[in-house]
């Protein structure tokens, strides 16, 4: 499938399943020397490839469509991650945003490790301080975090997941949101966490780095 059609399909799927709502959320892909990003001011529900904005790595427009106003952190993330990242998903999905707003959040380990999938696809999850959406400070923080993180929780805002492919970024985002949901559902229960030996076994078997 054409990569831009795939991007539109993924965006619509996020909207239909309630991961994105209103005009929130933005996604991008690196193709060659340019970044293709969802446009500003619209919903992820019904995008088409001809509406996607194309920009260079300095943020200059390469076609007539206006990029999402959150484009600075997309560019910063790609610069920080280098060749490791080729796709980025940013959503304001409910359970992750709820987690990002908790005053009691443990920033060193924002979610306990109770499933192997969270460990394989999401951890380590970086927690970034609150910055105004679209600001240069947010972009700088994302760029610094992207050097060694593929998953970020933005305080009082949302999530950013990077991937070497769009599928990987999407899987990571969904796993993060579902883990946050499970955590809220079980918050009043005593959870059995993975033991350190179980965690080490997963990391040895599945983790790339
Ligand atoms: Zn946002």
Largest sheet: 7 strands, mixed
At CATH level 3, the topology is: L-fuculose-1-phosphate Aldolase
Within the largest sheet, what's the order of strands?
Answer: 3-2-1-4-7-6-5
CATH architectural type: 3-Layer(aba) Sandwich
Name the shape in a single word. globular
- The CATH class label is Alpha Beta
Distance between the termini: 30 Å
Number of helices: 7
Residue ranges: pLDDT <50 for 5 or more in a row? none
Write the H/E string, N to C. HEEEHEHHEHEEHH
What's the count of strands? Answer: 7
Helix percent reads 25-40%
Describe this structure in words.
By secondary structure, the chain is α+β, with helices and mostly antiparallel strands. The chain has helices at residues 3-16, 71-81, 94-100, 116-121, 136-146, 166-185, 196-206, and strands spanning 26-31, 34-37, 53-55, 87-91, 125-128, 151-154, 158-163. It has a 7-stranded mixed β-sheet, sandwiched between helices. The site of zinc ion (ZN) has 6 residues, from loops. Zinc ion (ZN) binds next to loops.
Layout of helices and strands:
Blueprint: H1 3-16, E1 26-31, E2 34-37, E3 53-55, H2 71-81, E4 87-91, H3 94-100, H4 116-121, E5 125-128, H5 136-146, E6 151-154, E7 158-163, H6 166-185, H7 196-206
Parallel strand pairs: 5-6
Antiparallel strand pairs: 1-2, 1-4, 2-3, 4-7, 6-7
This protein binds zinc ion.
Zinc ion is lined by residues 70, 90, 92, 133, 157-158.
